[in-house]
UniProtKB/TrEMBL annotation:
<feature type="region of interest" description="Disordered">
    <location>
        <begin position="1"/>
        <end position="30"/>
    </location>
</feature>
<comment type="similarity">
    <text>Belongs to the glycosyltransferase 1 family. Bacterial/plant glycogen synthase subfamily.</text>
</comment>
<feature type="compositionally biased region" description="Low complexity">
    <location>
        <begin position="185"/>
        <end position="196"/>
    </location>
</feature>
<keyword id="KW-0750">Starch biosynthesis</keyword>
<dbReference type="GO" id="GO:0019252">
    <property type="term" value="P:starch biosynthetic process"/>
</dbReference>
<keyword id="KW-0035">Amyloplast</keyword>
<dbReference type="GO" id="GO:0010021">
    <property type="term" value="P:amylopectin biosynthetic process"/>
</dbReference>
<dbReference type="InterPro" id="IPR011835">
    <property type="entry name" value="GS/SS"/>
</dbReference>
<keyword id="KW-0809">Transit peptide</keyword>
<dbReference type="GO" id="GO:0009011">
    <property type="term" value="F:alpha-1,4-glucan glucosyltransferase (ADP-glucose donor) activity"/>
</dbReference>
<keyword id="KW-0328">Glycosyltransferase</keyword>
<dbReference type="InterPro" id="IPR013534">
    <property type="entry name" value="Starch_synth_cat_dom"/>
</dbReference>
<keyword id="KW-0808">Transferase</keyword>
<dbReference type="GO" id="GO:0009507">
    <property type="term" value="C:chloroplast"/>
</dbReference>
<dbReference type="GO" id="GO:0009501">
    <property type="term" value="C:amyloplast"/>
</dbReference>
<dbReference type="GO" id="GO:0004373">
    <property type="term" value="F:alpha-1,4-glucan glucosyltransferase (UDP-glucose donor) activity"/>
</dbReference>
<feature type="region of interest" description="Disordered">
    <location>
        <begin position="185"/>
        <end position="219"/>
    </location>
</feature>
Amino acid sequence: MGKAQQHQGGDESGSGSGSMEEISRSTTVEQGKRILALQKDLLDQIAERKKLVTALKKNLGQAAEQVKAYNSSETSSTDSAVLKEESVPGIIGLRSSPMHSDVSSVEKQEVSGSQLDAPITGNKANESGTKPPSAMPPILTEKRGGLVSQFGSSVKGSKAFEPETNTPSFPSLADVFKLSKSSGVSSSAQGASSLVQEKKASHLKGEEEPTVKVGPSDEPVIAGSANSVTEPTPPLAGPNVMNVIIVAAECAPWSKTGGLGDVAGALPKALARRGHRVMVVAPRYGSYPDAWETGVRKRYNVAGQDNEVSYFHGYIDGVDHVFVDTPSFHGVSNNIYGGNREDVLKRMVLFCKAAVEVPWHVPCGGVCYGDGNLIFVANDWHTALLPVYLQAYYRDNGLMEFARSILVIHNIAHQGRGPLSDFSLMGLPEHYIEKFRLYDPVGGEHLNIFMAGLITAHRIVAVSHGYAWECQTQLGGWGLDGVVREHNWKLRGIVNGIDDKEWSPELDVHLNTDGYSNYSLNNLEYGKALCKAAFQKELGLPVRSDVPLLGFIGRLDNQKGVDIIADAMPWMMEQDLQLVMLGTGRADLENMLRSFESQHRDKVRAWVGFSVKTAHRITAGCDILLMPSRFEPCGLNQLYAMRYGTIPVVHAVGGLRDTVKAFDPYSNTGTGWTFDKADGTGLIHALGTAMWTFRDFKDSWKGIQERGMTQDLSWDQAAKQYEEVMVAAKYQW
Ligand SMILES: Nc1ncnc2c1ncn2[C@@H]1O[C@H](COP(=O)(O)OP(=O)(O)O[C@H]2O[C@H](CO)[C@@H](O)[C@H](O)[C@H]2O)[C@@H](O)[C@H]1O
């Protein structure tokens, strides 16, 4: 630890001498050897345990036979007891067997093995009481899921719980950067790795050992035998339980400008429900009451300047939330992608550097994640540098060999493009520039951050099947289609889900005041009518149930097709309808919304700004939601709308095509209306049919609502598919 600390310190100040490197190398070699010895010991114990379990099973079988025979021969009960005792040597042996503790010691070593040469950092803040002790998550309980919970209390008393200084013993980014691949570091680390890999491989083949459990009274029991205690439900993820770190530039409800925030808020919870140990890492743009300072402070160099970063932590809804705090994040709390290109880039460089080291520095529930069985999930260009840092700083140097990365494409239109000179801000080895260099007719030769992430990540996810395909086309790839095609072997489309707690008409907190009402399928007509009336009243529109109320919610940019609504506006204003639009973004489009309202005050309301409450009330109070997006990777508002019995009218593109099935009056199927061409005529045609159905075909309308509301739109489905991608990444070299 001491040596490693010196190592860290030396490199952070940028003055590491030759002898310091020599010391750190030999320290790491020593650590490697220790790990090898531990791993060997571990394998021996596993073999021993296997033998013991086989013997136990055999003996139990024999004992049962003998007891049966004995009972039938009507021998005296005293003799019977003696016979039972004697004929179950396995059990008697186990009672006094040191293997009792071996079970936990195997687990204990696995935990420390996963930390490899990374002793876990203490938590100064907790010692000093910055965070109330009661707020500390209950560590190592079933609920926490993931690897640590599996290891249970065996970790207790391990090094992880010894308060140490908050200086990590794992080499910092700068340290590992300096370690050469050919050094003893990598070879010993690789040696240890291969042993761990062997063990993983046996899991892969399904060679799980039978479980030996220790009952409450210290009675050994064999799972599945007559005397076994109730077995705790295994995690849904089964043997694929992993440590997952989701890294995103925004995370709802703390920070959100659009769908990325929703996903970063909901996907982690769904993965945690499957039993994974899950962390989400996001910037701390403001002061969040539910996350406490951990006392861990680090410095990262960006463009020659040292930046101090501190880490905040909160355990919420089964997920470790880690917020990275630094002054440059505070300045943009109301405009998180604001500032000039270089400022945004510097923030993201700093964030990714800080995030990739979270598993070593931030003790969540007392225990850092370490690198064993670890998957990073990066999102969009903002965090596309994370897979690159993981590779360049660690894996290229034989470290974090079991960590994998997935990059999720929420919107490939934003790529973090800039001049090649931006490369100097990133602190990467020179040869990495080739991963960023892209030429296309629009941008010429430039630096492309999304591209580097796509190339480097172990797996890529696009947020719908349709979008996975579109990204590979010239129209949908925005210059990266060639790169995506080249890497399509690792690409998969997974449709986003809905956060059931946040978006459900039964529980929606924005519907329990002001005349609104929560509702469900059972009282849909009544509940939705109340919401519609309350919303019309709130907006100052005529309160009428017979008029179709249309809604639009979205970032105001080219993507969302506000101009298509503008094209259809003259026709729409001739109809008996009401329209409410909520959005913020491009100034010209904001003005367009304002002018819609000022020209048609009797029918239109425009809400320029960001209001979560209004978004929920639109979703509940409207009859129809318009989504004429020019492209839409997945789209969440149409999913929310269907969940609330509001019918989507959408341009059939990307995720909208995947999720909204066009209504077919002949077979009485479908959940909305779609149009194929992104223009006013297409929208008018689809909207006209929708409004006709609303007025004249009530039963069909109700059927569409019911089908939409009863679909399984939960994150649980998507989480299962993410898990499959994580497993694929895990076993990929
Ligand atoms: N003014 C406003 N006030 C309040 N809430 C507002 C709002 N404007 C938008 N929102 C909310 O932000 C979210 C936007 O979701 P979208 O799926 O449309 O996201 P976006 O295009 O940002 O995200 C990208 O990522 C997501 C997630 O993967 C993909 O679904 C999507 O297709 C892709 O473009 C919704 O929750 C919506 O209610």
